[in-house]
Design a protein that fits this description.
Elements (H helix, E strand, L loop, with lengths): L12 H4 L9 E2 L11 E2 L5 E6 L6 E3 L7 E2 L1 E2 L4 E5 L7 E5 L1 E3 L2 E3 L6 E4 L2 E8 L16 E9 L4 E9 L13 E5 L8 H4 L3 H10 L7 E5 L17 H18 L9 E6 L1 H10 L8 E5 L6 H6 L3 H4 L2 E5 L2 H5 L9 H4 L1
Parallel strand pairs: 15-16, 15-17, 17-18, 18-19
Antiparallel strand pairs: 1-2, 2-3, 3-7, 4-5, 4-9, 6-7, 8-12, 9-10, 11-12, 13-14, 14-16
């Protein structure tokens, strides 16, 4: 799933049209049914139109330095185009109308930044791998599991591959997949298209079938800048002591360490790192997506790592690798 912050994206239509912009704008694929705006062109520029005749100012949050300011027309509609192309992939955004925060009525909503935000998709050059295709599709189902440690009933989503219902004797490995800060258990399907990625991989013979389990990582009470105060232990109890046994009891899993993986994006990657480095008897495969690194010092300093961990996957975006500020857990070019 690509969740990238845009670069310098402020400006009005007049400023944007000063550049050589292709006028081949089409509605975003994430628009509400029948809605023409927002639109995206072949270069990755985004154009917005919001009907708010009584408003005094309307701004789109995409980009730094104040976002994209819209200009009011005679028809009461506010329009504007970003001054530069957005990065490929999915973006959260919202509107600021006379100082209030609102979602764009033209788009679907996605949970991120600790609220339901508007979303826009800038078509990626490699989007074929997560496209909706005419292939066999798995199921994504909601499950509610008891959590004694929190005194609540909690929610998870479970992806089962297309052959799960047909092959009643088959048992499957499980990936526990965590979202980033500000998101929740809906993110990997709604924004990340994890189910479509799996469907396409399976249809192409690119992977063996397995289950994916996605639950809320209890991340959003901590504020950005205060991540050092985050206590992962409560979520570890929910995940390892409550959710894993529930999934093994209610789905046809291969309920052992060699067939269980954990991975996560951003803060979910940090949670994955913290938990898996202590739980070698639970997880054998580890994936960190822009969420920390695992160094040779980690390997050498963790008894059981070399014997029990079968795979570590670490990925970062190119901008993360190239930025000059030190990373929270070290530069992956040097440590991974």
């Amino acid at each position: 799933m690509v969740l990238l912050l845009a670069g310098t994206l402020f400006g009005v239509i007049g400023a944007a049209e000063a550049a050589d912009i292709n006028e081949d704008f089409k509605p975003s694929t994430l628009n509400q049914p029948g809605q023409e705006y927002p639109q995206v062109n072949s270069q990755g520029y985004a154009r917005f139109r919001v009907v708010a005749p009584e408003a005094k100012s309307v701004t789109v949050s995409l980009g730094g330095n104040g976002g994209t300011s819209l200009t009011k027309g005679a028809d009461g509609a506010w329009t504007g185009t970003t001054t530069g192309p957005l990065d490929e992939g999915f973006h959260y955004y919202h509107l600021t109308v006379d100082g209030g925060t609102f979602n764009d009525p033209g788009t679907l909503s996605f949970y991120g930044s600790i609220r339901w935000e508007s979303g826009i998709e800038i078509p990626a050059h490699d989007r074929d791998f997560y496209a909706l295709k005419d292939v066999p599709h798995g199921r994504v189902q909601q499950v509610l599991f008891p959590s004694e440690s929190t005194g609540t009933v909690r929610r998870a989503f479970v992806y089962t591959p297309p052959d799960y219902e047909r092959n009643q004797s088959e048992r499957y490995p499980v990936l526990y997949l965590q979202h980033g800060w500000g998101e929740d258990e809906t993110a990997w399907v709604n924004q990340g298209n994890a189910n479509l990625i799996m469907d396409n991989l399976l249809a192409a013979g690119g992977t063996k079938p397995f289950l994916i389990v996605m639950t809320y990582g209890m991340t959003n009470d901590v504020k950005i800048g205060e991540l050092a105060k985050f206590d992962v232990n409560q979520f570890e109890r929910v995940l390892v002591d409550e959710l894993v046994p529930y999934i093994d009891a209610n789905f046809r899993t291969l309920a052992d360490q060699p067939h269980r993986a954990m991975a996560g994006l951003s803060m979910g990657g940090m949670e994955t790192r913290w938990i898996t480095l202590k739980k070698f008897d639970t997880f054998s495969h580890i994936g960190l997506f822009s969420g920390g690194t695992i160094s040779l010092e980690d390997v050498d300093g963790a008894p059981g790592f070399k014997d029990k961990v079968r795979l570590v996957f670490v990925s970062y975006g190119s901008r993360e690798l190239d930025r000059s500020s030190p990373m929270r857990v070290g530069n992956p070019r040097e440590t991974t």
